[in-house]
Amino acid sequence: MPIARHMRAICVLGLPLIGSNLAQMLLNVTDTVMVGWYGVEALAALVLGSSYFFSLFMLGNGVALAVMGRVSASLGAGDEVQARRDTRMGIWVSVLYGVAVLPLTWHSATVLGWLGQTPEIAALAQEYLRVLGFALAPALSMMVLRSYLSAHERTQVLLWITLGAVVLNAAINWLLIFGNLGAPEMGVRGAAIASLSVTCLSLVAQAIYAARAPGLRHIALFSRFWRPDWETLWSVVRMGVPVGLTSVAEGSMFQASALMMGWVGTIELAAHGIALEITTVVFMIHVGLSNVATVRAGRAHGARDSRRLRDGALVVVSLSLGVGLLAMAGFFAFGAPLSKLFLDADNPATPQIVVFAARFLMVAALFQLFDLMQVMALGLLRGVQDTRVPMWMAVLSYWLIGIPMSYVLAFPLGFGGVGLWFGLVIGLACAGALMMTRFWRGPWLAPM
Question: Mind telling me which residue stretches traverse the membrane in this protein (predicted)?
Answer without folding.
Answer: 42-68, 89-108, 128-145, 157-178, 190-211, 232-249, 269-292, 313-336, 356-381, 393-414, 420-440
